[in-house]
Amino acid sequence: MQYLYMIVKNDYLQRTRSYSFLITLAVTVFMAYSFVPAQDANYTTLSASGYKGVYNSAWVGYVSGIMTTVMLSYYGFVLVNSGIKKDIETEVGLIIATTPISNFKYLLCKQLSNYLVLLTIVAITLVVSIGVFFYRGTGYPFILSNFLLPYLFFAVPALFVVASLAIVGEVFLGKRNILQFIVYF
């Protein structure tokens, strides 16, 4: 169990300290701001039969949760893909091979660290979206549960699938990154 925790922790820290993570985070924060336009804006990100929603905490949470899920499903895969390849290139895989961890547990650790990286971006996006709700000052009360539910129902399970597909693609398609992207998209 100690090895599992250390692998997940170190892989998570390695990924969150990379430039690609920071770029993805910056793009996501910018998009979280633009997901919820001002009420008098000329565009809308989500409408139902031509109607815009009321800018309460449920609608803003729904819009930001759906849009975050859609966007991170696309470029989150690119971010978390090739984790095993990096272990081989940096020779961390040789160190892990000396531990008594099975292949399944290693892949599970990689999947969990991928998932944690994506959840970190979701959590920061959630905080930014809450800030946007208060910045827009719509006058409606803030209800945290209405804001969180779209993230819990859409983003959390979808990004678990994305993190899992990144590992499955890397295991079965190996070094063929372009083929992995074609199959995923």
How does this model look, in words?
- The structure is a single chain.
- With 185 residues, this protein is mainly α.
- The chain has one domain (2-38, 45-184).
- 76% of the residues lie in helices and 0% in strands.
- It has eight helices and no strands.
- Helix 2 (19-35) packs antiparallel against helix 3 (57-80), helix 2 packs parallel to helix 6 (103-136) and helix 3 runs parallel beside helix 7.
- The radius of gyration is 19 Å and the shape is elongated.
- The model has no long low-confidence stretch (mean pLDDT 85).
Q: Show unreliable segments.
A: none
What percentage of amino acids are in beta strands?
under 5%
The termini sit apart by 35 Å
Share of helix among residues? over 70%
Number of strands: 0
Number of H- or I-type helical stretches? 8
**Chain-averaged pLDDT:** 85
Total tally of structural domains: 1
Secondary-structure element pattern, one letter each: HHHHHHHH
Helix-strand category: mainly alpha
Q: What is the general shape? A: elongated
Largest sheet: none
Radius of gyration: 19 Å
